[in-house]
Design brief:
By secondary structure, this protein is of the alpha/beta class. The protein is built from 9 helices and 11 strands. It has helices at 15-26, 54-64, 82-95, 110-116, 123-142, 181-188, 200-217, 238-251, 269-278, and strands at 3-7, 31-36, 69-72, 75-76, 100-105, 146-149, 154-158, 171-174, 191-195, 225-232, 255-260. β6 and β7 (154-158) form a beta hairpin. α2 (54-64) packs parallel to α3 (82-95). It starts with a strand and ends with a helix.
């Protein structure tokens, strides 16, 4: 059966609203997981609005919840050294009692990178950095010592202790690029996500390409869980959203994530839950 999650991008809202929604969702068994996003500027108007930092928010929400799996869709590799990311991931995994998923992406949003002077680079540079970072993070989370020499990262007898509460923190890779993103997902991901496809057919076609990339390296594609983001504006009809979720489930989606847009209000949860339960 398809599972459901919610996402509250920490933009355009006060902390107390995000906290209230997550606490309420934690009490609703229909929702398996909850997510944030990793940016510093809003992605939707007003672009000069407020935005809270994702890792800090996740640490607090991990403490405020007890059941939901939690994570970020997805953390930009260029924002933080992968050793910093690995240590932060372990910390939140311990705070949450082993409920953390580690979302990772190559990075793309130029305005905030340019404003902060954080090098983003060309597409090739972003994905070369991404591939190196995935290898570094995976090694740090699983091995006692990590040695690595790459163009972007160099580690010598590096440690990341303690290890996660989980036997393995699931790595989530988001995106659709057939030449770099999907091959990376085929190699490293426990879960793959596509945000905002225009139809279940588009999602299915992209998922099929991921299957092909898995076959090319001899990996069983069934090992990778598949998810989709559906945008959830305030004016959305819950019945229509539930029907759309059912269409994606029929296309092969394992997890449907409803990505809220402001306002972030607890009262919006119940109508969607009721619609989903009737499907």
């Amino acid at each position: 059966m398809v599972a459901y999650g919610i996402k509250t991008p920490p933009q355009h809202g006060p902390w107390v609203d995000f906290l209230d929604v997550w606490r309420a969702a934690d009490d609703i068994e229909l929702f398996e997981s909850a997510w944030v996003m990793d940016h510093f500027y809003p992605l939707t108007p007003p672009l000069d609005g407020t935005h809270l930092e994702s890792w800090t928010v996740l640490a607090a929400l991990a403490q405020a919840t007890s059941r939901l799996r939690l994570g970020c869709m997805v953390n930009g590799m260029h924002y933080r050294h992968p050793a910093v990311t690995a240590n932060a991931a372990v910390t939140i995994d311990h705070i949450s009692g082993g409920r953390f998923n580690l979302g990772l992406g190559a990075g793309w949003f130029e305005p905030e990178s340019n404003a902060y002077g954080i090098p983003l680079g060309s597409l090739k540079e972003r994905f070369d950095r991404f591939d190196e970072g995935l290898e570094v993070i995976t090694s740090l989370l699983t091995k006692e010592y990590t040695d690595f020499t790459g163009r972007y990262y160099q580690l010598t007898q590096a440690r990341c202790e303690p290890k996660p509460v989980q036997s393995r923190i699931p790595i989530v890779i988001g995106g659709r690029g057939p030449n770099r993103t999907l091959p990376a997902a085929a190699r490293w991901a426990d879960m793959w996500d596509l945000a905002g496809p225009d139809s279940p057919a588009t999602w299915r076609a992209t998922s099929d390409i991921l299957d092909q990339r898995c076959a090319a390296i001899g990996r069983n594609p069934a090992e990778i869980r598949r998810s989709v983001h559906l945008m959830w504006p305030e004016e959305a009809d819950p019945v229509a959203m539930a029907a759309s979720a059912a269409d994606y489930a029929a296309a092969g989606v394992d997890l449907v994530i409803f990505s809220m847009r402001a306002p972030y209000k607890v009262a919006r949860l119940e109508p969607l839950v009721s619609a989903l339960q009737r499907m």
